[in-house]
Amino acid sequence: MGKWRYGVVLDAGSSGTRVHVYRWLDNALARNEAGEHAPSLPEVKTKSDWTKKIHPGVSSFADKPEEVGHQHLAELLEHARNIIPDDAVRDTPIFLLATAGMRLLPDVQRKVLLDQICSYVGTNSDFLLPDCDVHIQVIPGVTEGLYGWIATNYLLGSFDSPGSHDHGKGHHTYGFLDMGGASAQIAFAPNATESEKHANDLTLLRLRNIDGSAQEHRVFVTSWLEFGVHEARRRYVESLQAASAVGDNKELPDPCLPAGLRTTIDGKPLSPEDNGLYLLGTGRFDECLRQTYPLLDKDAPCPDQPCLLHGMHVPAIDFDVNHFVGISEYWHTTHEAFEMGHKDKAYDLATYQERVQSFCSQDWATVEGGVERHQWGKKLDRESASEICFKASWIINVLHDGIGIPRVGLEETTGSGHNGTKEVLSHGESKGYVDSFQAVNKIDSTEVSWTLGKMVLYASSQVPLEVEDALPVGFGSNVAGVPSDFQYPSVELLPNPEGIHTGTWHDALLEGTPSRRVPGFLLFLLIIVMAAFFLCGRGRRLKVYHKINHIFGRGGPSHPNHPKRRRLFGGKIPFFGPRSPTYERVLEDGAHEFDLSVAGSSRSSFDGGRPSETDSARFTAPKRASSWGSSNTPTFKYALDNSSSGTIGLGITAGSGVTAMDRHGLVVRTESRDHLAPLALGPTTNGRRSRAGSPSRAHPKSPVMTPLADE
Length: 711
Hints:
CATH class of the domain at 4-225 and 447-503 and 605-670: Alpha Beta
Keywords: ATP-binding, Hydrolase, Membrane, Nucleotide-binding, Transmembrane, Transmembrane helix
Region (Disordered): 599-633, 669-711
GO molecular function, one term: UDP phosphatase activity
Largest sheet: 7 strands, mixed
Transmembrane segments: 518-537
Structural class: alpha/beta
Protein name: Nucleoside diphosphatase
Shape: globular
């Protein structure tokens, strides 16, 4: 293998799937090149043409899972295969990690679809795929948020050069905000005071530098399902329908659409054949802001103060030291249309809202003409133009009314006690990332994507240990050492990895480590002895049996005045002596002592190996768990989201495993997966509560919600 190591991540989102190819130097070469700068993370790189996205998302194949391979994945696998050298393919891990679109599918459909994906990738590619349950799965929103936080701080350099990013109060990392079509995430390291107060709500993240040294971070992460732009739009339209008068009127005024635009309820252009309800744009952006505000669910009960959206507990944000970077819709909605040629990349609410107001107050005919002339760039097409006013209002509400980002240009920015901030510096790119919020797409020509965070964690885990007892790379509950729910980035990093891919008995006997060869040799001798014993005939076995009984003082005639001695094997071994009527009775009495099955398989529990959330209703309150893991569930766990119900997630925890054959014929370590209890969302059973007298972490239910086990 050459000097480069490669990795492939497929981001299976709600609207499409994007393949990312990354590479980094072999650690020995990286260490030599780094020299005195060795205390740094592996340098993970990608190129713009190493990424490819296709539509729609994999969740659209829920009703036709057999087509997801050749109609969707084949093109992405071929793209990655053309980039990676032939001699590196078999050593290149591949991950397909699905997000909110797949979380919304029913359990059975999700499982079947994931099985189809696994089968296709394993059969039609040579990439490293040791365990489908780890490499191909639905990840929870909190895991997605944590990976995004890693990617952001990695690209900004705060991991390797903390002194160059001193925000005051000993704080040097940046907060992360992400919003897709179905969900939204936030991740940040609270200030020292809040970190101590909410210690049990934080996630311990451990990385390894190329010199073998470790670095640890404690991060708060949470996710809101159905707070992405598409799901928020769906909830908004449902609220319009609920508020409309009952009657024959099929027209619903929509202030979030440009004036004069008519669409179906699901946003499609209205055709003459459509005779159902339709939306009529009124172009009143101020009213759009007012009508989207209730979607934040700010009035939901908050049993564990403080809270942000939907009654979700979040430590107080100190904007003096917490500077947030927003990606995905935060970037697309604030820049791709409303930048309008302006070079000032800084987010200023006053300027931004003025641009949005100007755009959304135009009638639809004027907007269409501007789209055709590419007045707002080539990326803004007719469909995007019809959606962007709602998206802009939603982004503004989430940022300022939801999260509390100071309204720069519209309000005083002095400290407010709960969420303080400092005076915002002058506009312009020269100010860097010291504002309370900055939307970005790329940093140093590299796209900010949570997939990069996943690969940084994986590459970091591949650095050889300098000392045998070094702590592993991964994340879990905020306790010392290795938490019971610790999530490892790859299968081979589990403690006692021999239990995962043991190979054949011949390998273990002749090629294994000394600790494995000795027990294997003894087992081999035992097998030989037993084989010879059973081949020697019933008569010879009987003689051996009597000799053994004699040696142990159990043979010979019994004295008439003494009770008869019990024979060594109770007379119930059918291989000795003549057959007798007791043979059948022995089988009945002793049958339960013989266990001829292996308990557990990679698909044996929690709905066929991939437990997931309930989908009985939408927009449910995230439930908090007492810790990532639960003492009454298996310890080999996967995580899916912010609920206490079993779901899938990314990563595996150490525990006593069982073995089973996977679909490729490899022996793999398996156990049931439980959900990734909200990354630092609930109190842990491994330490004291973060605050005295804190109420129950169970989240309140909105009147329109029922438990959904994802966010």
